[in-house]
What does this fold into?
Amino acid sequence: MDMGGLGRRGGEQDTPRLLRLRKLGERLYEAELVTEHGERLRLQVRIDNDVIETPFGRYHLSNLDISEHKPAQTSSSGESWLVEFDEHEGVLRAKLSMKIVETVKKPGDKIKKGDKIATIETMKMLNDIHAPCDGEIVEITQPGQGLSPGNILARIKCET
Amino acid sequence: MPRRVLIAARGEIAIRVARAARELGWEPITIYEDEDKLSPHVRAGVESFPVKSYTDAYSIIDAAIKADADVIHPGYGFLSENPDFAEKVLDHGIGWAGPSPKSMKLLGDKNAAKSLAEKLGIPTLSWCEARSPEEARRCADKIGYPVILKASLAGGGRGSRVAYTPEEVEQSFKIVEMEAKLGFGSPGVIFVEKFIKNARHIEVQILGDGAGTVLHLFERECSLQRRRQKIIEEAPSPFVERIERTRRLREELTKYAVALGEAVDYASAGTVEFVVDQQGKPYLIEVNTRLQVEHGVTEEVTGVDIVKQQLLVAAGYPLSINQHDIRLHGWAIEARIYAEDPINGFRASEGIIRRYIEPRGPGIRVDSAAEEGMPINPKYDTLVAKVIARGFSRNEAISKLRWALRETLIAGVETNLDLLRVIVDQPWFADAEYDTRIVERRLHELVYEIRRRRGIIKSIAAKLNTDIVTNAYELTNGSAAVMNHGYGWPWPPWRRAGYT
It folds into this structure.
């Protein structure tokens, strides 16, 4: 497994680029692709209505459309399913419904990337949220408050 | 005379039990909650009765009386480990496909089970109870680090934390207490227990007749877990096999399990769970006084139908097998397909199964209640299917499982199928170099590989979608030609072109 680039961009993965698609037979195709690391791949697929058969197994076309939450830059990709950080606006937003259980930083506090800033509860599990960058907390939601997807958990001023 | 078995469960396990009953010439009866009345398990019974809920003892017993049931089989989950329910069932003169309420109580109570084990010379992990962070810290100092903190009511991966330092113990105590409150409504008691690093989870299947005979059906290894819930299990244990040359671990584990069963005159099926450290030293963790989800791998390698034995014992018959009839034949591995999204923290997914294709072929067994059009209700267990592959050797079982998972298709609801496919392709899986935390530790690279594969397929599909799919639909009408080509297409060639 090629692990190059993992973690470098917070787990972000580019979709491989399709170079060539050749029809070999009825519904049988050969594709040539190049990955983000410049690796060239050649593989055959067969399309069977809404099912695509590949060397990795069967996929349904809808399996591929399922919203793959585009990994935003977060402090630790371990929590990228919980929050996303918008670098330009400097806001950390909830991706799921959650409740703030505890905050360990307050506005004005200096933070280092990876510092724990809060504990949140979602799906009856507790998770820690960490600072996405070095900088300062501008605003942070109070413990006990609930957040809906898209709500702001904290505003952070990153040092550039 | 045909006996009637009321199955107090839903989903795949209710169907599994119904099959066993029919094979014995008995009649299975199922139950359903109102919102579950269209589920496939309802149709698995010769009759089906509505109940207030799957955990309402009175309405279930009511249904059993109306159905004139001789035996109640509780499956797993719901009331299967509830001694009060078992007691009520027996009080109504109905057979109980499980151990006696007395042994359920004894073995289900961590405290009592551990003291019994210690009396029998079975090693356990040192532990104590804590009611405050300070008490937890004192306790951990006594036991030695690392420790694991667990809520007594914990389950499903919630309410347990590992701590390596006194400070972490105090912090973890607060977290575990809060999680237990959130998840179970009460903090209950919190246990501090010695934590074994890189532990293997190995368990022994036992069967008892309630009159002193206890048999073992060898061991299973369930070390592949996510959030402390099993996702891949195998029988026998590759770790036991490997270490067998230097340490007779199998003999030790089965001896302990049988001793524990004999001490309580165990009836029916049960599982004695151990953690085993890297040196091969086992410690008893708990006894599950019910049928387990992963019982199928043991059935595949021993040839014993565990559910049938449970039904026979519950109806007052003796076990139909002896210890010397039970041997290991080959290897079996099970992968559990759950409606959950490994890319997004294993969040349970909802939806309707739009397309469902099961794998086929020699050595492949699928235990499932899934069918197209079936909604996945997150109120219930999100297990969609258990795919079990049996081979002559472990390698053969792995390659059967690998291809079976590739043949499987589930659409309409996000599942962990891609994660399972990636895991069985890993070299560490082939080498059985794993422990109970490996999926969490390596989740990053596993998810990376899932995305890599999807990315490749996606970019091809995006192009094909516009060009061909419309065309392919036109070809479905009666076109069943087998394609003949010489391109070395890797997919099984017996598949038909076009889907009818």
About this structure: The longest helix of chain B spans residues 438-474. Chain B touches chain A through 63 residues (CB under 8 Å). Residues 468-483 of chain B have pLDDT under 50 and may be disordered. The two ends of chain B are 44 Å apart (CA to CA).
